[in-house]
Write a structure and sequence with these properties.
This protein is an alpha+beta fold. It has two domains: 3-103, Homeodomain-like (Arc Repressor Mutant, subunit A, Orthogonal Bundle), CATH 1.10.10.60; 130-284, Multidrug-efflux Transporter 1 Regulator Bmrr, Chain A (Alpha-Beta Barrel). It has helices spanning 3-16, 24-30, 35-46, 50-68, 73-79, 85-96, 100-103, 153-167, 170-176, 237-254, and strands at 130-135, 138-148, 185-191, 199-207, 217-221, 224-232, 263-267, 278-284. It has an eight-stranded antiparallel β-sheet with strand order 1-6-8-7-3-4-2-5. It holds the Pfam family GyrI-like. InterPro entries: AraC_E-bd, GyrI-like, Homeodomain-like_sf, HTH_AraC, HTH_AraC-typ_CS, MarA-like, Reg_factor_effector_dom_sf, Tscrpt_reg_AraC-type_HTH.
């Protein structure tokens, strides 16, 4: 099964079970991947979270039913997963701009979110700079925080973590320890699904040859075959755009699959606000 087919199967699963209380584990299982990787790829490709997609689709279908004028608001609220008619009404108004009662028989404009169909660009019009190399295991030292992936909480927390590290001097402390095989500050994402569902550990670290460093934690990055992508441009947009191209263009056409394990963003010296700034993305592949 190809990566595109796997993603589409997960979307089809969500559509088939829109009126049920489905878990992220069940959705990811339909895609034959981990909850972390599914949520990450889904967000990269759609710019929204899985939970938001489900909410929008449910409220779109609820609006269609209300326009027919057949069901009671309270029945629809429970049918589409809301505990009270009031919470349903608030969510409905936020999406459509009118109340559920106003929507009954309404012929004006409403906000509809259609069923997703995965489309990828295989033309490769814009070249991607990458190499595939094998690296032995190496140690990093740094700081670590745990984040939930539910409702995109990790997407909010990680930038705040970088803000702390850059403002309290930890970034300079890490750079002084950077004598390992990878140069620069590292953002490392480690999937914790096996021990704590829907959670990741995120590290801001530096490759370090040597023993423990006081005040810093250590992690061994395992031996792997890495696809290393060059990223050119200002942060954070250049990094985000490259991640999106990797999953929408490179993986579907390259023949490689994500092998699991830590994924790295490598931030080299220079001005990250410059359009000439160079950084990298490292993904373990098979």
């Amino acid at each position: 099964m190809t990566w595109v087919q796997s993603m589409q199967k997960a979307i089809d699963f969500m559509e088939q079970h829109l009126l049920e209380d489905i878990s992220m584990e069940e959705i990811a299982q339909a895609a034959h991947t981990s909850p972390f990787h599914f949520q990450r790829i889904f967000n990269l490709l759609t710019d929204t979270t899985v939970a938001e997609y489900l909410r929008r689709r449910r409220l779109t279908l609820a609006a269609q039913e209300l326009r027919k004028g057949e069901q009671k608001v309270i029945d629809l609220a429970f049918q589409y997963g809301y505990e009270t008619p009031e919470s349903f009404s608030r969510a409905f108004r936020k999406q459509h701009g009118i109340s559920p009662r106003e929507a009954r028989g309404y012929n004006g404009k409403m906000m509809a979110y259609n069923r997703l169909v995965i489309q990828v660009n295989l033309k490769g019009a814009d070249p991607m700079e990458y190499e595939v190399v094998e690296k032995e295991a190496f140690q990093v030292v740094g700081v670590k925080e745990e984040f939930s992936c539910v409702n995109g909480e990790n997407l909010k927390g990680i930038p705040q973590m970088w803000g702390k590290v850059n403002s309290n001097g930890t970034d300079q402390k890490l750079l002084k320890q950077n004598n390992g095989p990878v140069k620069g500050l590292l953002g490392i994402c480690v999937d914790k699904t096996a021990v704590k569902e829907n959670h990741i550990d995120y590290w801001i670290a530096a490759a370090h040859d040597g023993g423990d460093v006081e005040g810093l934690k250590s992690l061994e990055v395992p031996k792997a075959k890495w696809a290393i992508f060059g990223v050119h441009g200002a942060m954070p947009h250049a990094m985000q755009d490259t991640w999106k191209k990797i999953y929408s263009e490179w993986f579907p056409s390259s023949g490689y699959k994500n092998a699991g394990g830590p994924e790295l963003e490598v931030y080299h010296d220079g001005n990250p606000d410059s359009e000439n700034y160079y950084s990298e993305i490292w993904i373990p592949v098979k």
